[in-house]
Design goal:
10 strands; three-stranded antiparallel sheet; globular; 17 helices; Cytochrome p450; 10% strand; alpha+beta; five-stranded mixed sheet; single chain
Length: 410
């Protein structure tokens, strides 16, 4: 079926509370009906008519397709044209590595890569291990605690804050701004206010680091040089915000979702306890089984794109449903089952694919490896203290994370 006009999938609401709580049955239905359909998706600014790709093969290919642009300059016009609200007018967002195409993206990624090196990540291992031990020391064996707030949210924000050189007293501000930007049920005005507050602070931070550089990544980004070309102040602030926001949210969700997955699969938990060498592979399986991101970041077509028997016209918004692709039975056998020994788990799309593959993936993997190793070493008994049906997932379109995870460890 070749499509040049809009099509809305009947009976599927990707913005509903019920969908956020249990998206997999809906995604299974969509994969069966067709790999790509047009829906309404809520973004940072507004609700958009957008194409959602739900299968693995097409999703992976489109993540690397140069006909799907992320360029910030032309994006506002496309967003305005596809907005559900006829009176909405999108404003230009700050240019960043996330919202640019080659060759601009290539330049930015090269500069940022000079500061965010594997060596810098590996040097953080002892500090991450110490911080993890300090957080786990607060757990009282046998007493209930919220793993989301006490561990999953706490560790990544300490790690990212330390990496960037952000003072600890500002961590709560970043949590607040990130929560506002991810939420489905607050206004566009509130989201823009949070974004404005974040960038105002980042401007101060860059100025402070210029005056007093340290060993942190912000100082390294300021000094990053490629044949005399450096990041502009706007590019600096966009990059810092991207690292702080993306690195914090996704890693936090991976930790809490991974713990829940093991609680739901006690045999897998025991297998990891018996053989800790399986933990790095298990982290990949956690990322596949419950992607920390529901949808890829926004892209738009610069020319018609054929996806199977569907043609997406030029000037259309496209999202890849990462959670759906990661549970596509055409790619993964028995995809709704956690398997910490799954050989192809590393092929998941949770970190994206192509030129926009997540630069922070090695850090997220390192944090996951450390936290699960230490949880298994220190606590032989894990118990969920509420019925699984009582757990709630955060009401966001972009991220996939638990509101709370009350547990008891002994």
């Amino acid at each position: 079926m070749s499509i040049g006009t809009t099509i809305e999938a009947g009976g599927v609401d990707l913005l509903s509370w019920s969908f956020v709580q249990d998206p997999y049955a809906t995604y299974e239905k969509l994969r069966e009906e067709g790999a790509v359909r047009r829906h309404v998706v809520k973004t940072l600014a507004t609700e958009l008519h957008a194409w959602v790709v739900t299968d693995y093969e097409n999703g992976r290919a489109l993540l690397a397709d140069p006909r799907l642009s992320k360029d910030a300059v032309n994006l506002p016009a496309v967003v305005t044209a596809q907005s559900v609200d006829p009176d909405f007018k999108a404003t230009e967002q700050p240019r960043s590595m996330l919202f640019s195409d080659p060759p601009e993206h290539t330049r930015l990624r090269k500069l940022i890569g000079k500061a965010f090196t594997m060596r810098r990540v590996q040097k953080m291992r002892p500090w991450i291990e110490q911080t993890t031990d300090a957080l786990l020391d607060r757990i009282v064996p046998g007493e209930e605690f919220d793993l989301v707030d006490d561990i999953a949210l706490a560790l990544p924000i300490y790690v990212i804050g330390n990496l960037l050189g952000v003072p600890e007293e500002r961590f709560e501000d970043f949590k607040t701004w990130s929560g506002a930007l991810a939420s489905v049920d607050i206004s566009a005005e509130e989201k823009q206010k949070a974004l404005g507050q974040a960038f105002a602070y980042l401007g101060q931070l860059v100025a402070e680091k210029r005056a007093n550089p340290g060993e942190d990544m912000v100082s390294a980004l300021i000094e990053a040089d490629d044949d005399g070309v450096r990041l502009t102040d706007t590019e600096l602030m966009s990059t810092i915000f991207l690292v702080m926001n993306a690195g914090y949210e996704t890693t936090a969700n991976m930790i809490s979702s991974g713990v829940l997955a093991l609680l739901d699969h006690p045999g897998q938990l025991e297998q990891l306890r018996t053989d800790p060498s399986l933990i790095p592979g298990a982290v990949e399986e956690f990322l596949r089984y419950e992607s920390p991101l529901n949808l890829s970041t926004i892209r738009y077509t610069t020319s018609p794109v054929e996806v199977g028997d569907v043609t997406i016209p030029e000037g259309e918004i496209v999202f890849i449903a990462l959670m759906s692709a990661n549970r596509d039975p055409e790619k993964y056998a028995d995809p709704n089952r956690l398997d910490v020994t799954r050989p192809a788990a590393h092929s998941h799309l949770s970190f994206g694919h192509g030129v926009h593959h997540c630069l922070g993936a090695p850090l997220a993997r390192l944090e996951g490896e450390i936290i699960f190793t230490k949880l298994l070493e220190r606590f032989p008994d894990w118990r969920l203290t509420v019925e699984p049906a009582a757990l709630e997932w955060r009401y966001t379109a972009q991220f996939r994370g638990l509101e709370k995870l009350p547990v008891r460890m002994a």
